[in-house]
Structures are given as structure tokens and as C-alpha cells.
Amino acid sequence: MSATPSSNVAAGGTTAIQARFSKLQAQGRCALMPFLMAGDPDLATTAATLLALQEAGADLIELGIPYSDPLADGPVIQAAASRALAAGTTPGKVLAMLTGLRGQLTTPLVLFTYSNPLLNRGMDTFCREAAAAGAAGLVVPDLPLEEAERLSPIAAAVGLDLVLLVAPTTPSERMARIAAASRGFTYLVSVTGVTGVRVAMESRVGGLVQQLKAMGPTPVAVGFGISGPEQARQVRDWGADGAIVGSALVKVMAAAASSEAPVTAAVAAAAGTYLAGLRQALDS
Amino acid sequence: MTRTFSPLSSDSATPEAAAPGTPRPDPADLQVSVRPTPQGRFGRFGGQYVPETLMPALAELEQAAAEAWADPAFTSRLDHLLRTYVGRPTPLYEAERLTAHYARPEGGPRLWLKREDLNHTGAHKINNALGQALLALRMGKKRVIAETGAGQHGVATATVCARFGLECVVYMGAEDMRRQALNVFRMRLLGATVQPVTAGTATLKDATSEAIRDWVTNVESTHYILGSVAGPHPYPMLVRDFHAVIGQEARRQCLEAFGRLPDVLLACVGGGSNAMGLFHPFVEDTGVRLIGVEAAGEGVATGRHAATITEGRIGVLHGAMSLLLQDGEGQVQEAHSISAGLDYPGVGPEHSYLRDVGRAEYAAVTDDEALTALRLVCELEGIIPALETAHAFAWLEQLCPTLAPGTEVVVNLSGRGDKDVNTVADRLGDQLSG
Hints:
heterodimer, A: alpha/beta, disordered N terminus, B: alpha/beta, four-stranded parallel sheet
């Protein structure tokens, strides 16, 4: 495999994700990272929404590739994946859409995909194509540390950061190994459970953030269950380097898609407005 | 790693019985120490493709199982309950009229049925449910969840949870609840909560995904009794080891009945638990042919089938790498079978491995062939087999004419067919009237 230097790798060997977190840390800010499902309700809307989220102040964006059997997702994101698949969304079409946004979308983009669509395309091919389309990182929720050992160097060779996940059930010795192997940032799952909107954050998350940060320099972003401005602020106050907001945003987008027309403009505007609110909360 | 049995490798097997044209497997590939490796791999299959949240629970389960198998108090309690509660050992029954049906002028194979249908709850599933319930008790987990397709594993799990006073939630596809209404009622009668799953195709695949999501959420209080030799490591090994009692008994019973090992073992394969339970103690005896029969549904060519090994490609489903029915983009496809228990687009990783190394053979039969076989077994032997099991019987039509006289064949009669009578009536009703 050719290790062609990708545009994701900035001068000095840091990736786009690492550079973004360094900059934010220097400013003392917590990264705001929205998640949306590609192709929900269609890819033109996804493209417009990505730009709206960038405009509204997203520091990084996580983009889901829809999969038929999303084990780690709750009902909101499952439904979004079903809508996207029903609209004919495929990994190839998602990457083509991203390629079309090159030059406009400068926010580091992390692809969220389950193992099977990735393995089906081939790890080498998938990573090469994702990097060529402008992606900066990869999250694979059903690929724990042991299974990630093969993928991580393949991703790194094309400049993609393979982000690993830590859960509240992860023992501390294992947590240290995951933090050492994760690239770009470590994704701290804030609940024992699937993705979804929760009323309150588990209080043990604060301790987990501190524990992870003490293990090394890799930034820590918290996701699964952040449902609004208050929880995003709480995550920031616990010392996290990033807050990931998924289901709450996906719900806002779904509501906009069903209540207004034309869909693309309505969804992108609703997503931008929602994110701007979160941005304000995080920066206040 | 602790193992459940010691293969009686000194028994004499007939070495010439391997299928013509079948590649000779390398004995090193068949040793139990690589099925699976300590990393949970069966060759290129197996592994642990699950959310990080579950990884500590899988490690805990693996350790608890290893400790349990090494603990005489555990194994003697399991043995005692298998005898007194489940009704083991199940008979090895000589099917004389079925044998006569397939006899040629010069003779034909002799057919034996391993009567797992005579277990408490009517199928092999209770072997694993009982073993895992005892493990749940050891681990101090008070809540149990399970997935079910035909309902047999759900009923078995509900049964053992009632027996041990464990809270029980069974996930079942809404479509399967309709097809298997009797089993839904049985589970509720036994005190279990049956949770309908309407996502996706509303069948076993989706029920399994939902059970895994429940486990991710409640992992600290809950044990997941997975019902097949599928899922992340250690489940394929764990479930196989609890079902290996089928093969261990069959081995002993064959030696008693005809003084040697059988020539052919035949079993249906959905996820593959009854087949793996029968095959496991014979895997290193390469003179014994192992044949698994999948569901070809309306025909493999129609695309409406569940013949995963026959038609699938390598992929990941429910935590394991195995063969998988999927489209060109890696989306998991809907499986189709008249039998709810075989209606699954995946298969246990050890079956994929045994096929890969040339140790086991896999075939597929259609819904119609299974129904014909079901009627034949009813009429000739006075036994109503489950629709799943009928797939194994259906393959006898192809197999028997190729077997030499005196070939000893053991069919795993994995479950009884009472639960399927409504489905069969829908399809055969007119032919039976009058």
C-alpha cells in the first residue's frame, strides 16, 4: 500500500484532528462535535447540513454511515439509519458526496461506521477512499481494542486517525491501553448503554474523564447521551476536550424534515440553529 | 483453557468413510486447542466485534465458565439436573421403517435418531439454557435476557429462569411471535416477559440485536443467555460445550449399539447449535462424516433463503466474523425459511471454519422438501419432528442413495414439531383433509 501523504496530515506529522484539538486546548475551549447520519433523509440534505454545522461553529463533525444492524445505537439513530438506507445511501455515495464538498468543508470529519460495511469494502480500500474524500478520522463502535489492532496502522498509513472507545465498564488497566492506542482523541462513552438522549449524565463520567486525561496527552471527547446545552457544559466542566451530540441533533433534523418544505433548506437551518445554541452554551 | 470433555480418541473409527472428493483436513486444524484459539478465533472466523461496554463482561463470562468446568461441584450439579430435570440421556433410536424406506435391493444405510426432542421443553436448547443459568447464578447475576426465533430457546430460558428464580426477558421478533404463538404463551406462563421486536425484519436477527442492546445497557446486573453457537467469543465455545453432551452420549450409545463410531452425522443448521453439539466430540475422528443442512427456503436461486454457508460471504454479525448473507454494500440481508429457527442470515463461526478446513459438509434443502420429510417421519416413525429438524431429514433423499449398505447414520432429532403444527396445517391442510 502506498502511504501517500494525505491532506489530512498537516506539516510536522500531526493530523487534522490533532491540530484542531491542539488549537482548542491552547484557547482553553472544549470542542463541539455534532453527529449526523449520512443520507437521512437524503445526501443533498446531508451536504447542506455539514456546511450549516460548520458555519454554526462545529469544531469537528462525526458522520454516520448507515448500517442495517447498528448494535450500539438506540432508537433515534437506528431510525435515522433505516431512513438513510431506504433512500439508497451506500458508503460509496457518502464518500462521493464528501468528495464534492472538498474545499468547502474544512472542519475535520470523523466517519462513524460499523465493522461489516468497512470490511466488506476492504480495510485498505475503505481507508484510502475515505482519506481521499477528505475524512480525517474513523470511529468503529463494534471494533474493540483487540480487533482494532489490524485496522489502526492501515488507517494511519493514509492519514486517518482510528479513534477508540472507552466505556464506564472498562477496567482502568484496559483503559490505559485503549488511551495509548487511540488516535486523534479517545471517545469516552458516557453511559452503559446505546446512543440516545438521556435526562441526566451519570456522575461517574467526571471521574472517568479525569482518569483518562491522567493517562496521557490524547484528548478525551465524551459522547452517548448528551442531550442539550446543560449537559454539554457539564462535560466541559468535568475537563473533557470535546462534547459529542448525536441523537438530540438527529431528532431536531428529523422533526424539521417532516414538518417543513423544502427539506434540504429546512433541515440544514434547523441543525445550524440547534448547534449555534450549543456553541453559545459551551463558550459562555 | 478448560475443556468440557476428553475425546475418546482410542475408539476405532472406520477411516474409509470420508466423502469422496472431500479434502483431507489437517489434524492440527481440528485440535480443540485451536477451536477456538485463546483469542476466540476459529481460523479466520470468530472474534469479538462488540461495543467496548461488553468487553469486560465477555472476559468475566469466559473466566467464570473456565472456573465452573474445573469445579466438580458445578459439573456434578449440571449432570444431576441434566438427568433429573432435563431427562438425559436421550435415547439413540433405530429408525427401522425409515431405514427400510431408503433401502435398495442390495441394502442401504442404517438410520439412527438422537432423540433431543424428548428433552424437557421439547428440544436440545435446554442443555445450554440450563448450563448458562447455573453460570449466571455463579456470577451473581439476577436478571437474564435471551433472544429467540422459533421460541424454543426462549422457552428453555424461561423454564430454567423459573426453576432458579431469575428474572427473565426474552426478545422475539414480532413476525416470529405471530408464527410461534404457542411458544409465546408458554414463555409467559413460565413467568418470562416476552418483548416484541419490530425493528428491521422483525425476526431472529433483530431480536438478537435488541438483546445485545439490552445487555450493553444492563450489563452489570444481567447475564445474556445467547441461544446458539454464534455471537462474540466465548459464546460459540460456551454454547457448544454445553451442547456437547449430545455428541458424548451419541458416541457412547453408538459403541453400545453397533460396536463402533458412526459413519455419518447429520443435523440441521441455523445458527448451528444442535449440529455443533453433536459434531464436537467427533471432530478429530476424521472417519466420521459431518453434514449440516441449511434452509434453502423457496430455493437458493430465488434469493429467498437462509443458506448462509452455501451462499454467504465473510462478514461480521452480532459480534462474530463468520459467513453471512449480505448485499454488495455489506448490509445484512433478510433470511427466509418456513422454519423460524433457521431464519437467520448468519451462522456460528465454528461451522464456517469446519467448512473452510474441509472437515464438515453443508447442504441446503427447500421449505417444500422439509415439509415432505416432516410428513415422511410422521408416517413412518410416529414422530412429529420440528420444521428445523425436518431439514436434516430432507437431505436423506439425496444422501442415502450414495451410501454403502451398512453405513451407520445418526440424525440429530433436535426438537419436536408440536410448535409447528399451525404452520404445517397452513401449508398441508388441504392434502390432509378427509
